[in-house]
Amino acid sequence: MDVVRIMESLAQQGVTVLFKADAGRMREGVEPWTFVASGAPFREDLLVRTDAASVEACLEICLPRLRTFGLAIPESGA
Q: What is the C-alpha separation between 37 and 58, in angstroms, rounded?
């Protein structure tokens, strides 16, 4: 999965994207990855966010939600 390509595509559509790896949660073995997407075309109070065990898991959860807002997201792959 080309995460950079996905993030660039979202940014070009006005979406701010953040991936975070939390060292404390990683040590505890508790969903250390966080994905957050906000900005246009969302309302000001709306964002798409999840915590998961991996980057891929975050994307599996959030990309379908982002597509429901009409965002064009590259398919998985190189």
A: 11
